[in-house]
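Example 3.2
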Amino acid sequence: MDYEQIKKAAESYRADMTRFLRAMISHPSESCEEKEVVACIKAEMEKLGYDAVEVDGLGNVIGWMGEGDKIIAFDSHIDTVGIGNINNWEADPYQGYEDDAVIFGRGGSDQEGGMAAATYGAKIMKDLGLIPAGYKIMVVGSVQEEDCDGMCWQYIVNKDFQGQEDARSKIEFVVSTEPTDGGIYRGHRGRMEIRVDVKGVSCHGSAPERGDNAIYKMADILQDVRALNENPADETVEIKGLVKMLDPKYNPEHFEDARFLGRGTCTTSQIFYTSPSRCAVADSCSISIDRRMTAGETWDSCLEEIRQLKELCDANGIELVIFTNPMHVLTYEKAVENGYRDFLSGLAQVTDFYNFSGINDITTNNDNYLETSHYMPQVGDRMLDVMFKGRADERLLEQGFGYRVTCGNCEEFLRKYVDGAGQNGDLAMNLY
């Protein structure tokens, strides 16, 4: 392969790629709002002479080069997060600037820069005859990744292929264009969403001692979360930081891979509270945690963390309430394929928990979700009614929503609601 020829071809497109990237950046493209940037990409692919360009039912834009049966895929998520406080930006996030080294703007790196590279990379492959015989190139601009990890490709696999095995037989490999400082990465850290809810007792702010401030209780938890993310792993600290997974002492089988991928992290991303008024003690506080897991951290190690948390709560007279998230049915089915049953079985050995996952009237109704990763407030209200008010909907309970799982009834629960989830399969028919 003539790398100098490839570099020369890429250089010839420098101005076009720069223009294209800046055009994508100019279109605000937060998750579920990617329409304008999708149109921008589709037009660019058509201008470059792609053999076929389509926008699928979910909104993903897909360009094809070549005619073979085997596929080499390039994926770039084209949605972005919001801009936050615009005063923290050194330049307009949607106009930005460029110099000899940087193109500045929201999405320039994560991940519209990758989209520009993939779009023109496929063009260069065609120009130079680098598409292998029997292969075609699939360039995907996927949507909603920031909020719905994996849903876009799940949709593609179900729509454009005859399921997962068919996709695996036709797609030789997928290149993700996530930014890596030019390195080639063979894997990435896993992700878990965690919600922590703390209950208190409200009273007037002039006599806070009469109540139990949920925000203060959460403050202690926040400090522990911070310690997990920032502490070292030596004997100077009681709470060992997640950096410990880079140490062969704590992660003997996987520390080298963990060093390659980077340490796990634990980040408080959102905080919520309820209080009767601004002059009252808060009676509830909740946080969302973004947990990234590196090599050696498994669902079993996560269970161990829950086990330690329960021991701490028991020792301090704190009631620990654990529940499983009401995952949208598309996410739930994927979780079951990847060992969710074993996790539930292990969790029941650690502590009782309320089950809200599975196939039921809630998780099969799209009106209950902003997208597949985030349920609407009315779903949370139903969960709170079950856990703290003892109000369970009989039809939903019969479907497993609100079922209290214990060590004693876990096997029955698994047989009925996980192994036999097909009994509720008719509920999901409208989604396919």
